[in-house]
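Bug #77: duplicate submission created two jobs. Keeping one. Sequence:
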Amino acid sequence: MSLSRVCCSLALLEPPPVSWTPQIARKCGRSSPWPKRKRRAFTKEFKAVAVRIVGASGKTVGAVARELDLTETALRKWVRQAEIDAGRGQSGALTTDERAELAQLRREVRTLRMERDILKKATAFFAKENA
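Kept job's structure:
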């Protein structure tokens, strides 16, 4: 059986068999032998409940993440951010409110720079026209 035929038949399996290698995955048009997980959005309430479960249950972050069908990295990040918001995080770390304010200020700066550039071009245009 040819490699391309094996790739096509293996590409239909979810998740791929253990015998897959990154090289075989690339030949089948996949960047990884594992299917990419779709990005999901979670509410603030869900995140808060997940963080509370980690703190109250005494289970590891990995165990709770598996139970809730989350990535361990995401849950670990939520726990770290909750600690920062509670004042127990690293010094200099931004709270959620500070992060939101920073994002809003960056949007404002971007808008103001665009407006400034438009006014600069308009000034140059009218100065050239009147000269």
